[in-house]
Amino acid sequence: MSEAVNRKMRTERSALYNLLSRLYHNPLGFFGLILVVIVVGSAIFADWIVPYDPIAINIRERLQGPSAKHLMGTDQLGRDVFSRIVMGSRIALKVALVSITLALSCGLVLGLIAGYGPPWLDKIIILIFDTIRSFPTIMFALAIVTLVGPSLETVILVVVITTIPVYGRIVRAQTQAIKNNEFILAERAMGANIIRILSLHMLPNIIGPLLIIASMDLPGVVTIEAGLSFLGVGVRPPTPSWGSVLNDGYSFIRNTPWLIVSGGIPLIITTLGFTFLGEALRDILDPKLRKDI
Amino acid sequence: MWIYLVKRILLATIIVITAVTLLYSMILAVPGDPVTVLLGPRSTPEMRDTLRAQMGLDKPFYYQIGHFLLNVLQGDLGMDVFSNRPVSTIVFEQLPHTIILILASIGWAILIGVPLGCYSAIHRNSFVDKLTGVFSVGTIAIPSFVIALYALLIFAVELQWLPAIGAGTGGTLVDRIRHLILPALAVGLGWVGYLSRLVRASMLEVLGENHIRTARAFGLPEHVVIFRYALKIAILPTIALLGVGIGYLLSAAVFAEIVFARPGIGKLIYESVMTRNYPIVMGSVLITTIFFVASTMISDIINAGLDPRIRENL
Question: Which of B107, B130, B159, B279 is the most exposed place for a label (fewest CB within 10 A)?
Fold first, then answer.
């Protein structure tokens, strides 16, 4: 018994070790991993990293360039930009994690219903999915903002609504592909109920590729949040967001280039990091997915 | 083919109708009265009643949607309450600016991206191929508005090579082109990467096929094999992507227009969001959605015309 457990642990550890070593030999993937560690690390340890309060105003030191005192300079209210950028990683990752989790759950349920349920229900769900996907994302986001008003929750709502169809469609396709497999038919012949079939037999076969795709969606979600905040309709001030730093920089572009430079860098690091890492992981874990994207 | 054509057009129509219904029910589902949102909290009850009757909001839900749909079909998107001009006129005034920007962006992206993809596929695993790979993943990932802001900062503000704001309307053609360069650069850059990647992938697939081997065995010159036989097939997925890509291009164009203060749909919708002028917001969303649905449909039809297998799947 304990021998079996030991062996299982050993193979699991070696699987993780195997993954990491393959990642290490993929230069781009490894580079992505380093960038991701930087971003996630600064979000987790933000409280210890920030030298100043990110929303503390100090008019006397406004619009300064980078210096030893302020690593990335200060904005039009004299707030320390480096502190705002580090704290901003929290907002960015929070929005991304919350909205992707919500969209994933809703997409999973709707996709399973569409794939496994009656054809008329499938047609309705697919029509709604197609309709939502036919709105240009940012236009749709602005329409929702006009109606609901700008806030962190609105940003999350926009991301959830626009990404549910992506996950829903993948789940539906996967469900339909394995719906008529023998092990499902056997289960049904034995009289298992729908909940058991879906959660015990369908789900494990769908979740893998779905998680890889979800992790590759992360840069897109961070972009939507930063974009809406840049337009001034996302996260409300004075909450530090990368997009609002860019918005301040755009207003004061004639006074200082540093706000835009430092607002863009974390966005570039995050999007590149997660994309490089995601692509490498996908190639290692599930090469078949490569063609679908 | 005709059956496919009719089915595809019918599907597009259904999607547009669903989109209109969805947009309109969103207005009604939102807590708070759209009239109050529009007029502001300081409006009098009489003002609100007048506007409500004017917009037909006192009628039942199904009547409103039906009425709205019927009006949209006749090209009537309602009146803008601020300027008292038809919404459709205002939107169609701005649309050409956005279309020019999109065409310019996609144009230079095709000119650079497709040859780059071909070269990478032919010289697989060469230095240029690897560099193109990294470059394309990078440009796809980086948000287009960050590229737009950096381009504005570097080329317009610091170096002052190109104008920073406007579209140069009223100026000479050269002036307009100079105004177009930076926004088109920002919108198209990600597409250079996208296209080169796509063309490379499908080119590699086609180059491995039997008819290419046969063509080579017959001793045809390499450039004939590549351009006459391989590229012709490899370009298909790219055409399909262009139609779908119009939606993403529209989103990127919105940001480029705002960053460079260019007239266009993006700037119009943004300014309307700021003043909470929702008839204009809804009108622009609707027009761009129809534009998007139509372009997806056209690229689907072109694809089905070129590849009969696609026709079976609708």
Answer: B159
How many angstroms separate the CA of residue B94 from the nearest CA in chain A? 15
pTM value is 0.83
Cα A201 from Cα A179, distance rounded (Å):
10
Superfamily designation of domain A25-44+71-285: MetI-like (1.10.3720.10)
Asked if residue B268 lies in contact with residue B75, where contact means CB atoms within 8 angstroms, the answer is no
The nearest alpha carbon in chain B to A148 belongs to B30
Contact of B10 with B313, CB cutoff 8 Å: no
Query: H-type helices in A149-202, by residue range?
Result: 152-179, 182-189, 194-196
- Which of B135, B145, B182, B296 would best serve as a mutation to test chain A binding (most A beta carbons within 10 A)? B145
Question: In terms of Cα–Cα distance, which of A255, A244, A194, A199 is closest to A55?
Answer: A244
pLDDT tens digits for B94-128? 888 898 899 999 999 999 998 898 888 888 888 88
Give residues with Cβ within 8 angstroms of B239, minimum separation 6: B299, B302, B303, B306
Chain B interface includes A143 (CB < 8 A): yes
Angle of helix A27-44 relative to helix A2-24, nearest 10 degrees? 110
Mark yes or no for CB contact B292/A134 under 8 Å. yes
Minimal Cβ distance to A136: which of B22, B153, B247: B247
Q: Across-strand partners of A74?
A: A80
Token pair in block for residue B184:
């088109």
The domain ranges of chain A are 25-44+71-285
